[in-house]
């Protein structure tokens, strides 16, 4: 609609011979207008800031705080492979160090720790109380304790209401439809919601509020695990120092602290159990080896005793000793090769199993200690790789199906590694068999050589060799057993709690300062946006500086807003308020007129505007009244014959007037009407003619003006708006002082370009302007008023010395 009105206005202006110029694009910033808009928008900006801060307060009020408790652990994990298996074990330990901390994090977040945690803390039942705004969890503060047994169809994760009654009685409100039970006693079994419940009083029951709304929720394992997974965070703090952080977030700070400290405790227990299990396995292996060796040692001792009783031989010759030593070394090496062959066969059998080790950390050296005796480093590396792949596959199968790509890919990798291990085992077995064959040939040679010695010496040496070997091996195993016994006696966990969790005093969310800062920033941004929008949409003249800057016409003066009374139409007010600001401003305009037309005693003044409603008639009658008050005879001609208003300003009739004079129906003397001011008369427009422009162009109009000049000093013509019809331009050409009215906060800035057009196109060098309805700012010059509706609904400026009444009025005046 606004675009349509602007288009119609431009068309009317073109018809009037004054086509407006196109507005310049990308105009510079108008600092005065911007400051005016900012000042008018200040209350709204303050309101937006208050709303932003209020929204922040409401957010903090209705958002439960979230607390975070944390502890720091130092992990000193060591692999027992390094103790049992020497250098090979140390190499494996160094390889596993890279994944050590990640493995510990997975252990802390595993179901193993969760099960121990749920057994230590009662996390399956939560107790709540409804506050004024938020519901709070009563961790360790509940007046009751609930024990339950779940039956078929138990309603887990559903809130069950609890109401305290007198005489140690209570009532439950069940979740299925909100039904209530009757009065119940503490300790008695209750069948409700699929549970067998027993409710007991706690020490807090004595101080419980009987009017409060209590409730409890029984959570299933999945919900508890999900709650722990969601709120538990385990992170590596410093990989070089092997430190990790265990943090837990919850709306209850005490609960968060207890959970973190309990996780530290159950993790300690789990680590001790794992170490004890490892030690126990190693000890069992040593015991089995000792039993086997004891049998062999006993048999060797029996054979030696039989030989001694039978032959009674105790010395051997030097040559026999030399051969015997060679055979002993040969047989020891042959036995080692045989053990290696047996171990390779055992490895070949283990490789075909689904998994080499059942340990969570995947340490294959703990499961197969003899693996360290393999001299083929590539085979050892491949076996470790196979163990790691099988452990990864086990973890994948917990989350994926057999048909998933990740599982298939891992099984393919396992198959490839197994194929490589089989080939390496086959080559090692061939090598061992060849070495055994060579050893057998060499042993046969030595035995043949020894056969030349006395038969008793040979038999004695043959029996002494296994006896010494078994004794040495038995002593080695006994030393290891004692060593592990001492280790188990002083076993400790391989981590230290550097800083245990404490009760957090400040929530991590929401952060009050940040929330208030966001609310304040949002209010400021919205306020600035409001100022920018209002500035960009501001397209009306607001002050005299804009009028002077955008027009080449001189400014006669400024007429302030008059709000002493509301008027339906323009009225003569200067006679009733001669000392008011509006009267003074129009006197200033009268003085300026004297400077413009000093050479003429008789003056013809025309007053026009761009469109209707800019105060043209109001300025006409009041300017005429001020001039008439200076003892000059003044007459007002209402030439706005299409929409006459002058007669309305004086509460007179419009039966005859200018139109009837120009058609020679009446004389001007017959149409003269007098006012309350003796020297001020007016002639109304008369009945609306079909051809106002032709009447104005007639010679009769010039004769009328000439006749009026003979009787009056000043003739003031109220012309039609030049932006709507051409009559005003015709009259302005005849006038000594053409005046153009611009109304503050009503006339558009594009109207000022129309004034410049009129000056250039018609040569109106004496064209002057008046800024009408400008609101004063008290001591700071003229500002910008709120304007007025049709017929000056808001009126004009009040009498000086009248202060606004009331705080709201003073604030409104101050901000405006």
Automatic annotation (TrEMBL):
It is an enzyme of class 2 (transferase). Residues 603-758 form the AAA domain. It catalyses: L-tyrosyl-[protein] + ATP = O-phospho-L-tyrosyl-[protein] + ADP + H(+). It comes from the Bacteria. One of its GO terms (molecular function) is identical protein binding. One of its GO terms (cellular component) is plasma membrane. This is non-specific protein-tyrosine kinase. It comes from Hymenobacter swuensis DY53.
